[in-house]
Structure formats: C-alpha cells, structure tokens
C-alpha cells in the first residue's frame, strides 16, 4: 500500500465511511422518531375500538395493547384527558419524550442517549393524533424494543455504508490509476529512458496529457531535458574545441617564440620609426606567447592564479589604447584614457590588460557595426574597499538576447561571427582577483562595463 493508488484507495474508504457516519447520526435519530410515531399511531387505532364500543372485554383490551406494543393509551379530545386503554406498568416511568416540538438536535441527543443505554426502561411518549383525531395522544412503552430496532437499523446502515465505501473506493482506485498513476508512470518512464542516454534527443518527452497539471509537468520536463541535451552537446563541442585550441596554441607558441628571437635585430635598425615601434612589437609577441601558455594550462584544467603586484592602472590602460589604435585604423572611433595617474591597484598586469582589451575591443566592434563615429572612455577611481575601472562607449547599446547570455561562452556574442568568449574570459579573470565584472548600464546612449578589484589589507 505504499503506491499512490493504494494509499488513495485507503483514504477514499476512510473518508466515505466518515461521511456515512455523519449521515448515520441523523438517520438513527429519524428512525427513532418514526418508530415512536408508529407506536402512537398504532395506539390511536387501538383506542378507536373503545370509541366504537364503550364496554370491551378485558381480554380484547389486553390484545389491543399488545398489538400496539404499549402499556396504556391516553387521548385528549375536547380538552378532556381520557385513559382509553390501560394495563399494569411494571416499573416507574423513567423518561418522557414530547415529539410535538422536538427539534433536530434534541432528537439526535435523545437517540444517542437511548442507543448507549442498554437497560430497559419504561418511557412516556407524547405526540399529535393523526387525522386531527384529538389534541394529543400519550402512550407508555418499554425502551428495549426501541433500542433493539435502532441497533438493528444502525448495523444495517453501517454494513451498507461499508459496501458503498468499498465499491466507491474501488472505482475511484481504477479512475486514479487511469487518470493519474498511468500518466505519472509514463513520465517516470521517460525520465528513466532519458537518464540512460541523455544525449539522445529521442528520449525527450512529448507532452500529451489532457490533465492540466500533468501537462504542465510534462512541458517543464521537456524544457529541462531539451536544455540539458543542448548543454551536454555544447559541453562535448567545448571539449573538442578545447583539444583543438590546445594543439593550435602549442604550435602557435613555438612560432611566436621563434618570432621573439628576431625582434632583437629590429631594435638595432637605423630607422627611427622601426626602433620606436619595436618595443610595442616585443610586448605584443610576449603577451601572445603568455596567452598561448595560459590556454594550454586552461586545457589541462590548471589555470594559473594571478600574480599580484602593485600595478599602475593608467599604464595598463595606455598599453590597451596603443594596441587598439592600430586595430582601429581609419575608423572614426576615439579611445580616451581617463584613468588617474596615481591609481595603483594590486593585480596581475597581464590579466588586467586582457580584461581591458576585451572590453575596449567589444566596445569598438559595437561602434563599428553602427557605422557612426563613436568614443570609448576608460576611467577609474579608488573606492573605500576596492579599485574600480569603467569602460564606457556611446554606441547603440546591447540587444536583449546579448544581455540574457552576457557572460555565457558561445552565447553572449553580439556581432555576427563572434564567439562570446571575451566577456566570459574577462569575468573569470576578474573573479580570480576576488572581484567581479558587471554590466553597469546599456541603452541608446551607450554601454558601460565595470569591474572592481578588492583592496584587501593593502595600505599606502
């Protein structure tokens, strides 16, 4: 009986029996009233014989009283109380019941009292004669036949109630199995099959229940299974991509290492422009080599922790501006470095450079896609508990879809062909410092990203 349908069968039987008990109490009270009224009517009929003939034989009077089931009959007609039929009463009258003005609660109380009183008592019953044959009729009877009839009636009612409850529970049991249990088992079956092969889209449930609640559960399960299947496929693609990126990064690192060896010769060039650009080229190649090494470490699930030093954030922002100006070329986009000269933070300079570069590059791509002149501003300040850097543009703002999956790899990209990795990587790097990267605001007037680095116990 641990099943849903089994428990429902037991509960249904109990509740039907409880309802029958609630019906039983007024029913037994009604039966008692009818029994007593029947005795009054039979006594009235017996008294008619005396009205027809004033002189009755003692044997006939006793027979009439026996047939009526009473000891004596008193009939009041025309304000005169007459003892119509009488016989010796074996014991004093214990109770008197007047059925003329008895309300339902009084009838129920008297019925329960009689039902739970096993001793025989002589009781007086008063009622109204039928057919307006007088003002009242009064009889004296034994209580034992009344209680015996009530007990027999009650047992028959309880037996019938039990049979009704069993039949009702059985049909409800069948209905529950068809309407609820069978669909639930079907959903469980879908879940078990899906758990065996979650990558197989054929295991996803197809909602078909006509019961509103079950259909909602099926639709919720379908959505969950669909998202999980897509996530598993995405995870598999990411694993494959990670392997490919690791291989490419390995070879690219070797190529960049070789290119790094040739930069020393560029620094000895006679061309002033070449000598001036050589350090930037060296820094770019060094960062590219470092990025490849970090990518290989990430592929091995060994992402290195940031190397924290005191970093002038304006210098890092200036390197970002210089690098991105080469990528901007002739585009009408201005990059402004408004980071205070004295703003120094405890951070990893290479990782913070990557964060700023990703945010500035995303802002530039958004402005370039709009086809209008734009401006990107890098600002910063020192708060009481952290250092804050903001990258703001006056572009068109982010679309709703991009905002929903902003920091999700391969889903948060805005431009066509974008991977959406930049923001995900940047957020991970900032969180590695104990801070956070958030979208502060976006709209027709522009977009602002903000990342904060905790000050900790650093003092100046």
- The proportion of residues in beta strands is 15-25%
Low-confidence stretches: none
Average pLDDT, all residues: 78
Sheet of most strands: 5 strands, mixed
Structural class, from helix and strand content?
A: alpha+beta
So what's the overall shape? rod-shaped
Please tell me about this protein's structure.
The chain is of the alpha+beta class and 460 residues long. Among the domains are: 4-168, no CATH class; 306-454, 2-Layer Sandwich (Heat Shock Protein 90). The protein has helices at residues 4-52, 58-68, 104-115, 144-196, 212-267, 272-299, 313-328, 349-370, 400-404, 421-432; strands at 72-77, 80-85, 93-98, 122-127, 136-142, 309-312, 333-338, 344-347, 374-382, 386-393, 436-443, 446-454. A five-stranded mixed β-sheet has the order 2-1-5-4-3. The longest helix has 56 residues, at 212-267. It is rod-shaped, with a radius of gyration of 49 Å. The model has no long low-confidence stretch (mean pLDDT 78).
Task: Write a concise synopsis of the structure shown.
This protein is of the alpha+beta class. Helix content is 57%, strand content 17%.
